[in-house]
Amino acid sequence: MSEQDRYIPGVPCWIDTNQPDPETAVAFYGGLFGWEFEDVTPPGAPVTYLLALLRGGPVAGVASQPEGTERGVAWDTYVWVADADESADKVRAAGGSVLSEPVDVGDSGRTALCADPEGAAFCLWQAKEHRGAAIVNEPGSLNFNALNTRDVDGARAFYGAVFGWELLDLGGGYAWALPGYGDFLEQRNPGMRAGMAEMGAPERFEDVAASVVQTSDDTPPHWGVIFAVDDADAIAARATELGGRVITAPFDAPWVRMSVLADPQGATFTASKFVPENKGGAATQ
């Protein structure tokens, strides 16, 4: 196994955001997370693409919006697949939709924009040279991808058919478990399972590929991103200073303290600090 083998099919591997003004996003996220940026736009490409780097490792992307785009500003989740075309067929067969047919992104990989039956959009990623995020679960990097859905049973059927995910009841919340993912992670990080058991993590947590939030309000079903931070309160304050806004003030939840934020152009995300002492607590503002 090489350092490049960080993901297996069915695991979210990358995130990016399309923004009307990429430079505004660069200033915001650079100031918030300490990201540096590299312009990797291919010659003649219709959109600008900037790679966000943390300690030299790719962690996210910022793109300009295609002309005439009708999608709102948001963070997109990419799921690693062995074959983007076959996975797109699975999306259709399971009742979802392919919003943008599979297409090659230079030598980086092949991608398609899809949506589940409720309309939550996500991307497929068949990797070539671009092997996904190099740093995760550290302050300033991706911590979790979360499906916000009103129909948990429908989501279970859809994502099970497309990615082989199983719905894991964590007792107060849900997550997507991918059989075999824990074995892969243990091989990459020997002792991972023992460490989780020592902390009191829920059974099968090593297989968790993403989380699930069941909603009952008017929030449209969507995929959200959660960034790890070292201080949720400080990050919320800093986001405001940089022109963003706080949607949900910092609060305690099981295992974490988090805040829901929006960048200056409207893309929402969650900032989360891991707090093991909160593992048995209920959410409190």
Plain-language structure description:
The protein is of the alpha+beta class. The protein folds into two domains: 12-127, 2,3-Dihydroxybiphenyl 1,2-Dioxygenase, domain 1 (Roll), CATH 3.10.180.10; 142-278, 2,3-Dihydroxybiphenyl 1,2-Dioxygenase, domain 1 (Roll), CATH 3.10.180.10. It contains six helices and 16 strands. It has helices at residues 22-33, 84-93, 152-163, 181-188, 192-199, 232-241; strands at residues 12-19, 36-39, 49-54, 57-64, 75-80, 97-105, 109-115, 121-127, 142-149, 166-169, 174-177, 208-214, 222-228, 245-253, 256-262, 268-274. The chain has an eight-stranded mixed beta sheet with strand order 2-3-4-1-5-8-7-6, with helices on one face. It has an eight-stranded mixed beta sheet with strand order 10-11-12-9-13-16-15-14, covered by helices on one side. Strand 14 and strand 15 (256-262) form a beta hairpin. The radius of gyration is 18 Å and the shape is globular. The chain starts with 11 loop residues before the first strand and ends in an 11-residue tail after the last strand.
